């Protein structure tokens, strides 16, 4: 196994922090035991929790105006994989990478799969890209892709998605995430109904090409790049499209793709109720953005989302198999550090949701005891679960303080010596 961070550095660091971790873990174990919670059972749950990282999140993204590369940034999928393996080596939370095509295109996908496996990585949902033109394409996506009036652009977009399925099969993936930027900037620019008809017709051709065990994850987004209307703008449109397409079509919830203050946790409950919850793109948002680090703005919302997921897991109604992925762009931080921090925050919310006393919660709900129902959530949210995550991570071969070891390893400085500089330029991802 090819591990970019030195095993000696990790061992030394963990040994130096073993005593304080044991002290904090034992203190939390005693606290949880008072409520009848076995800390080791919770820790074992964490050991089974993973979230995928996006290949495109390994590089520095752009703001709406420019990007500011850092030395040692990855320049291709091979270097991105290496960075993703650092995140997983330290956190033990991110063993899969979600690729984006054509950005991550190579000539030999079996070799790429082997390369990832040697770094301890597998593959998550494959993402298609029909929201920008590529050199050599016969048709432009300037006026849309799956919903475009131009039949040639639609066919090209369908063909690209089918190619993504084929690539994903070779990589060992089993989900295709479809997000289209199709929409309008002016009232009257397109007919709402006819553009949705075109989308459904094209999407059904992609759906027909899905292998039996694959899912098609439909990602909605309220706006951007279209600023007046978007074809798959919200969870309702996504749900209706998924329902129309068939059982293998599910809805993907990107936390940053809603109007400000929308009750996303309720959307999660709704989608699960009707068997259409396919997965998540985790990030955070303050205004209209969708790229801030998970939990950096509203960690309570993330906790409430995981609370609904814990309810859903306990009441699977047939299937509970949401795919967890990070979808962020890092403009002012080292992307590895942002994804280490984000993966940790996501896992924290998962653990806190696992600590909710559901018997008390449901009992309070039945009795209309509003304050006690709220307190059942609040008690869990207020617990500092860091020692559980740290113990699970160290036991799995990760490190106690991820950022400290990452900085100590000087990984980015080493890469700055080896890798070609990344060019300037705009870079929305
Ligand atoms: Mn997304």
Low-pLDDT stretches: none
Q: How many strands?
A: 11
End-to-end Cα distance, whole Å, is 31 Å
Biggest sheet, spatial arrangement of strands: 4-5-7-9-10-11
* Helical fraction: 40-55%
Radius of gyration, rounded?
Answer: 22 Å
**How many individual helices?**
15
Bound molecules: manganese (II) ion
Profile the largest sheet: 6 strands, parallel
Model description:
- The protein is of the alpha/beta class and 429 residues long.
- The chain has helices at 7-33, 39-47, 77-91, 109-118, 151-171, 192-208, 235-245, 264-273, 299-314, 335-354, 358-366, 370-381, 386-395, 402-409, 411-418, and strands at residues 53-54, 96-98, 122-123, 126-127, 175-178, 183-184, 215-219, 229-230, 249-254, 277-282, 323-326.
- The strands form 3 sheets. Strands 4-5-7-9-10-11 form a 6-stranded parallel sheet.
- α1 (7-33) packs across α13, α2 crosses α13 (386-395) and α3 crosses α10.
- The protein starts with 6 loop residues before the first helix and ends in an 11-residue tail after the last helix.
- The model has no long low-confidence stretch (mean pLDDT 96).
- Bound molecules: manganese (II) ion (MN).
- Manganese (II) ion binds at residues 219, 254, 281, 327.
